[in-house]
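Per your request, structure below.
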């Protein structure tokens, strides 16, 4: 069974958690990328209009913005993301992967010192790694060693955002996971299923082939990334 550290799943922020998630994912993703032939990076992903290479270019660019504290107006918005990808169009794939590896290695301490405002960047990068694995046809796209940290981060971020309250009874978690913010007017929704499918729901990813129960909320209400 997967376990989530109780201290991670409370409202008390663990500043090192995003960095741990990035390092765990770096160690799983980068070797996979370096082992794939260049043609595989043209595969389409769950992100509309983006190939694997585009996703990786976006992730590396976003993390290096964090590392270098480059947060101009409109940063991380769709137009800025597209510009970042376009700027890397003529890079060899190896350079794109190198930048991503550096960003995943160096962004954690910067995120830790930011007080929580950048924590969602680490979660988004982890989800994008799942997008890449799914595009490659790898099993367990939104699972792996980073899943417990990702769930803990997801739980806290949804509470801080005042998201829909939800109690998740996960097949692969010993204790129920509470997400979103308690409401005096709305009882918590209820999810029964596995953790990777819960991630798909919150990330707005494809649910084809999954099995779960959701009561008290609509799927679209859970999407924290919009779109």
């Amino acid at each position: 069974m997967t376990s989530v550290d109780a201290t991670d799943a409370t409202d008390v922020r663990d500043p090192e958690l995003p960095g741990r998630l990035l390092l765990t994912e770096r160690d799983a993703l980068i070797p996979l990328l370096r082992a794939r032939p260049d043609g595989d990076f043209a595969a389409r992903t769950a992100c509309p209009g983006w190939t694997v290479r585009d996703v990786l270019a976006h992730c590396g660019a976003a993390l290096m913005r964090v590392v270098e504290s480059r947060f101009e107006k409109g940063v991380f918005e769709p137009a800025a993301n597209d510009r970042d990808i376009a700027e890397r169009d003529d890079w060899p794939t190896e350079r794109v992967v190198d930048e991503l590896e550096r960003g995943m290695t160096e962004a954690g301490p910067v995120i830790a010192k930011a007080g929580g405002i950048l924590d969602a960047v680490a979660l988004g990068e982890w989800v994008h790694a799942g997008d890449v694995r799914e595009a490659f046809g790898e099993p367990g796209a939104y699972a792996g060693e980073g899943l417990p940290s990702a769930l803990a981060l997801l739980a806290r971020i949804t509470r801080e955002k005042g998201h829909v309250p939800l109690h998740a009874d996960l097949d692969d978690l010993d204790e129920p996971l509470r997400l979103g913010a308690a409401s005096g007017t709305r009882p918590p929704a209820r999810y029964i299923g596995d953790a990777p499918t819960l991630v798909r729901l919150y990330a707005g990813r494809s649910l084809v082939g999954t099995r779960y129960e959701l009561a008290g909320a609509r799927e679209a209400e859970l999407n924290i990334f919009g779109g």
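The chain has a mean pLDDT of 92.

Regards,
D.
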